[in-house]
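Fold it.
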Amino acid sequence: MAAVDRVRELLDPDRVPGPGDDSAGYLDLLPPDAQRPRTGAQNAMHSPLVASVYERWWRPAFSRVLLGPNGPSMTDERKLARESLELDRARTVLDVCCGPGNFTRHFGETLGDDGVAVGLDVSPPMLARAVRDNTGERVAYVRADARELPFPDKTFDAVSCFAALYLVPEPFRVLDELVRVLAPGGRIAVLTSYLTEWPGVRQAELLVARLTGQKMFARTEITGVFTRHGLTEVRQRISGAAQFVSARKP
């Protein structure tokens, strides 16, 4: 069975108005004008130019800024994600705000033959690039709103959102959705921004965030959401202006 057909089997019919359009190589569940960008940062993620250079130039450069010069490399990030999500035990993985799919493809390559890694994004240019550059037998892509995931409760063994939560509208609503679709015993991992507690640097970070339309998360905001939902094994790693938070659903 093709990966996109497996994704269709995972959809919640009460949350999806129809079968979706897969003519572009990904399953499109949204109207063309859904979730138009509202900030400069969101506009960049909808740009075909940014999508074309994202994996090779944009994401690595932005990681250096976000994680700091001594932060993990892209290879280290993938390793950290794989271990935190316990992909060796997973069959279904959801990569929310997947961009051009560089992590999604990696996740799919680690799964067994009966596994599927689903990359979800709202940007057609990013998904078009994902289909072009990062496909695989166990990889499929979906265009949907992260604030209203089209899947039933407790669907996925592992759920991730890397380097995107600070860009999306209503990020805490997105976090609630990530936890909702995570199966009991499953793992969740988030890489996002971190607002330093140093007063001078903190003000500079907040200024940049306002100018670009990004969200800076304080130390306890992400961990607090996970704790409120009753997740266990909540772990936080801070590097530069970024934080990597993982947890397990009981």
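The radius of gyration is 17 Å.
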